[in-house]
Amino acid sequence: MPIHVTHIDHCSVLITDVAKARHFYGDVLGLREIPAPKEFDFVALWYDLGGTYLHLLLKDKPDTISPRHFCLHVSDCAAARMELSSKGLTIDETVKIDAADRFFVRDPDGNRIELLQWQRPYEPERDGNYRA
Questions:
Q1: Fold of 10-127
Q2: Is 82 in a helix, a strand, or coil?
Q3: Is the pLDDT reported for residue 132 higher than 80?
Q4: What is the pLDDT of residues 76-114, one digit of tens each?
Q5: Interatomic CA distance for residues 32 and 118, integer angstroms
Q6: Where are the domains positioned within the chain?
Q7: Sequence-distant contacts of 103-110: CB under 8 A, at least 24 apart
Q8: Alpha carbons 6 and 11: distance in angstroms, whole number
Q9: pLDDT in tens, 14-31
């Protein structure tokens, strides 16, 4: 019997400074921190994204800088771009998708974060293209 996946539950990223991470994810991005499971014997910050979660794991050194990323859906990408830019974040524009507005920022450890607003539903038959 095939596995029935319903959605992505969470994404984990590495952080090296709890105070800087809390400021960035809580104050700058406005995410709501929730307590990590009491059974954990290590530092992990959890953020509730409305039923999907972001886990920040404290490590001695940051992850390698790469194009890997997670994406946060926003209701108004233009407003998010202006708000984050006004807070001093570098906005990295990227390939335009006809159905969406999107851009990237990086957290204090260099983790890449996409912010995206779908302007119409993505229709794979119309909007997609397989490439190998």
A1: 2,3-Dihydroxybiphenyl 1,2-Dioxygenase; domain 1 (3.10.180)
A2: helix
A3: no
A4: 999 999 999 999 999 999 999 999 999 999 999 999 999
A5: 23
A6: 10-127
A7: 103/77, 104/69, 107/13, 107/15, 107/21, 107/24, 107/25, 108/15, 108/17, 108/20, 108/21, 108/24, 109/13, 109/14, 109/15, 109/16, 109/17, 109/20, 109/21, 109/62, 109/63, 110/62, 110/63, 110/65
A8: 15
A9: 999 999 999 999 999 999
Strands 69-73 and 112-118: parallel
Asked if residue 26 lies in contact with residue 56, where contact means CB atoms within 8 angstroms, the answer is no
Neighbours of 23 (CB within 10 A): 13
Mean pLDDT of the chain, nearest integer: 95
The DSSP letter of residue 85 is H
User: What pLDDT sits at residue 16?
Assistant: 98
Which one-letter amino acid corresponds to residue 16?
T
d(CA 70, CA 32): 17
The CA angle 90-26-70, to the nearest 5 degrees, is: 60
